[in-house]
Amino acid sequence: MKTHTKSYLLLLPIVALLISACGRPEEGSGRSVIQNKGSDTLVNVAQAWAEAYQTVNPNVAVAVTGGGSGTGIAALMNGTVDIANASREMKESEMKELTAAGHAPKEHVVGYDALAIFLHKDNPIQEISLQQLKAIYGDGGTIEKWSQLGVKVPGCKSDEIIRVSRQNNSGTYAYFREAVLDESDFKLGSRDMHGSKDVVDLVMNTACAIGYSGLAYATDEVHMPCVISTPDSACVAPTIDSALDGTYPIARPLFMYTAGEPTGATKDYLDWILSNDGQCIILGKGYAPATPPTCSTTAM
Amino acid sequence: MSSKAQKAMAHMDRRDLSWYVDRAVQILMFVGGISAIVFIIGIFVFISKEGFSFTFGRFDIVEFFTSMNWRPTSESRETYGAFALIVGTASITGMAMLIAIPFSLGAAIYIGEFATGKTRESLKVLVELLAAIPSVVWGFIGLTIMNGLIIQLFNVPIGLNVLNAGVILGLMAAPIMTTIAEDALKAVPDRYREAAEAMGATKWQVIVKVVIPASKNGLVSAVLLGIGRAFGETMAVLMASGHSINIPGSVFDSVRALTATIAAELGETAVGSDHYGALFTLGIFLFLITFIINLTADVMVRGIRNK
Fold first, then answer.
1. Are residues B17 and B89 in the same domain?
2. Number of domains in chain B
3. Pairing, β A191-193 against β A32-38
4. Is the Cβ pair A168, B155 closer than 8 Å?
5. Which terminus of chain A faces fewer neighbouring Cβ atoms within 10 Å, N or C?
6. Minimum-distance CB partner of B242 among A70, A158, A191
């Protein structure tokens, strides 16, 4: 008993040391640290950038954390981060607050994400319009059954459309509401998944389901219909190219925000992200780059 | 004996290393003993502090308890109706107990009264092993295996529903219920059983007429602890329930639980916002409910004991 207590007590300072070591990247040793926080959609790419930047400039360490677009922007206001990642545009209120504090935010578009509509692979629907999506997902929308869309989905005997959505504070959810539902509310009763990958997994296993997520999460087990924006426009398939040239109706820009014009190490880092090398990394992660890079296949 | 005690007393008075060790351990034990109270109060103060700005500000008690419109991030008008979440939690907990009570009491009676030797020991180990499975693993089983199984077996469009979450939670709560119920059965003195058998009672009669009534307190607390476990479980429920704001009409409907809502939304909510406060208000509500369940258990067990 006594020895147990002792060994636990010995562990305490070690744990404390570890915690303090994690919280404080070394300062004053000639290295500068860029704090980068925000969107969970961007977190994988941001981490890949941070890792690759180690070889480009070993004197700069980039610390990346997720937590959501709102969290990142809040941290930028508090001055605890240098760069905030966001999968949505900064709200006017957030802009005002930052400008009032003397740091007019600077927006950098670092890439694009096409929001793909996911269906079970047996679902015969090949094209879907934004109006139909609004009637399926939007509050007061009348489409509840697959037969209302003129199809019979094999394996879906109840004919009911199982709506798969995201938790209500995700950037993806907010973008879908903005782009498809015209800022009106979602119909209650959707299955709200906690992550883009969960949406695809559920749709994969459920014949009656429809879902939406970033194109980067597509797998061979689900199928993505092309999307029609207005009744007389062509149906555009979600691809990196269609997101890039703006023809795909539900593609959103991915942002990095800085408080004021970036300077020093932060500026160098952002310049590198928008350079050919940086853009190849975001392309490799399945998102559309901000400027089309030329990449060797190994970089992907 | 007395000289030995005297020696020990003298030993205590001398302030040598052993004395200090003794004191230190005593203090450590005291801190350990009261830490539960300190933590509970600390947690309650924290939750209240974060939630009260909402509870006494934006909060609308009628909306909270009667509306199913949980739209905390709406662009037009935020609404905070928790009715569907409360019904969701209640339905999953109810389903879990329907599964867990017969299973765990049956297992406890078999392990405690029938099984002997190796069977008994290995069963006890296996039951405890079941309790060691992390909840995210249970959730994963619900999401992948149970989902497909329910779709196939019952011919329903989606397998993430009250039944799925209830079965998963029932299996999660069963081990702890079995262990406590078995302890309760063990606590019944053997002379009760012997007396009943001497009167000519069969094994079944002994269990139903003597052992179960005598261990009622323990069995009730086993069930209540199971309810507490099911009520507070988060991860598995989040994954297996479908996480859909819905008043269930059958066990095949998806629902959303209070705990899962907090887990899913708190991470991306701006600190200090109405939404943040609303989630903490859900936390206060959960805390009060568990408090009431535990208090009821305590009062009930005491009441039975005093009779």
1. no
2. 2
3. unpaired
4. no
5. N
6. A191
